[in-house]
Amino acid sequence: LQVIGYGLDKNYELLTPEVQFKPIDVGEKADTLFPVLCNKGNVPLSITGLMLNPTGNMAFNILGNKTPLQVKPADTLWVAMEFDAIQRGRSTSALFVTIDDTIPVLATSLSGTSLAKRELVIAGQTIHAITREPICPQVICSELNSGKTVKKLVSSAKGNFAFSVPTDLNYSITAELDGYFSSSENVDLITPQTVD
Fold first, then answer.
1. In tens digits, what is the pLDDT along the chain, a chain of 196 residues?
2. Helix (H, G, I), strand (E, B), or coil: what is residue 193?
3. Which of 11, 14, 151, 167 sits in a 20 to 30 Å window from 126, CA-based?
């Protein structure tokens, strides 16, 4: 007697290694639906967990999928994910899937960028500390956390300068002129942005 057949085979293929949300403004939300894995085996897969790592990542949320759930042979697990642009900058996370109560498997890397809601004009006048006469230094605006130069200009003959910067960051404004000590002021634009 010859028996020909297939054994029970649990097998799957991860389908979406990365999801990048398009840049959105702070305070907005975006969602997407994407295939996570396909059951390539001949028995159902029991999905016992979907989680984000780091846990408690407030920028990303899993929508709707409640575990445990079954993925039948030749069927696909789809996940709806939301990106919440809480604060300016790039956010990342990772979606892990637990199959049959085993160690969670990295299924999909997630990323999204939150853009500043608006720009703010910073204007001022550079003057000599003793004579109170206008001077024409180079004015440099840098982002405090990264140190990256955002704007660089020379003030007018009357010492005036003005430029716009995205809100919700902290900046350092420095005036430099040969023969003088440089002078800096810090500007906090994070607090007003979160009050909106």
1. 565 555 567 889 999 999 999 999 888 999 999 999 999 999 999 999 999 987 655 799 999 878 889 999 999 999 999 999 887 788 899 999 999 888 999 999 999 998 877 788 999 999 998 999 999 999 999 998 888 999 999 999 999 999 998 877 789 999 999 998 888 999 887 764 444 4
2. helix
3. 167
- Hunting for tokens 């634009």 — which residue is that? 189
CA nearest to 96, candidates 140, 47, 154, 134: 47
User: Do the strands 105-115 and 24-25 form a parallel or antiparallel pair, or are they unpaired?
Assistant: parallel
Q: What is the 3-state secondary structure (H, E, C) of 28-69?
A: CEEEEEEEEEEECCCCCEEEEEEEEECCCCCCEEEECCCCCE
Grouping H, G, I as helix, E, B as strand and the rest as coil, residue 132 is coil
Provide the token pair at 161: 């300068």
* Cβ atoms 124, 96 nearer than 8 A: no
Contact 162, 123 (CB under 8 A): yes
Torsion angles phi and psi, residue 46, rounded to 5? -100, 110
Q: Write the secondary structure of 3-34 as one string of H (helix), E (strand) and C (coil).
A: CCCCCCCCCEEECCCEEECCCEECCCEEEEEE
Query: Which strand (E) or helix (H) includes residue 172?
Result: strand 170-176
Hey, what amino acid is at 132?
A: R
Structure tokens at 43: 């028995």
